[in-house]
Amino acid sequence: MSRADHMDVAAYALGVLDTQDAERFEEHLATCWACAAELETMVPVVGLLSGIDGETMMALEQTHTDPALLDRTLMAVRRDRRRTRLRQVFATAAAVVAFGALSGVGFATVFHDDRQFQQADPAPTVPTTAPAPEPKSSGPGIGDPAGVEGEQHDATDPGTGVNTTMFLVGKEYGTEINVRLTKLPGPRTCRLLVVRKNNTSEVVSTWSVPGGGYGTSTNQLPLELTASTAAARDDIAKIQVQSVDANGIATPLVTVADL
């Protein structure tokens, strides 16, 4: 490769080569690390030169013979750049004010320097009143009984007055039991007992009842909970809600039998 190829770096960086010479130099550049490194150092210089017009270049050439002309030229360039920068600031400020007028947002005074010039006033807010939330049942709810899948079984104990609605759903792992209890007084500790047809039993859930109870005159909300048992649906004989005292003695409150 000739020395001329190495001398084309500046011409290529400034974009003065014709198409054929540019392609030839690019082929040379792909294999010459020295030219590639020199080209990389010229990129910032080319960026600076791109901001200088032709008239300024001609004036700078004349300053080689007239030092006073160099000073006047540099001062003129600085003034021109300062005016350009201020025009950009004013244009941006005008755009911000126009945006504020369209969006209904008020803006503070615009400063004529390089600091942040936009300060938005908070838009007035209109207070809204959200609707009061509907009361929800306590515990993991089963919701509206009409919308629950499974076998529905209702029972009321004539002695305790406790009322229950249970939904039994057969699962691969056994049986899911959704329970709804009302007229359940408190305070007390309760448990849910599953009795199989082979007379074995299993406690599948326990809970505490507050003093106001559930589904009572003090607390009208029912207790809703979900429990599971490994027993298959066809193996369950009855399900019973029991009250357990401090000594661990269980007393039936309500029973769903003949399952």
TrEMBL record:
The keyword Transmembrane applies. Residues 10-35 form the Putative zinc-finger domain. Residues 119-162 are annotated as: Disordered. It comes from the Bacteria. Keywords: Membrane, Transcription, Transcription regulation, Transmembrane, Transmembrane helix. The chain crosses the membrane at residues 89-111. The keyword Cytoplasm does not apply. Residues 122-131 have a biased composition (Low complexity). InterPro entries: Anti_sigma_zinc_sf, Znf_put. Pfam families: zf-HC2. This is RNA polymerase subunit sigma. It comes from Micromonospora solifontis.
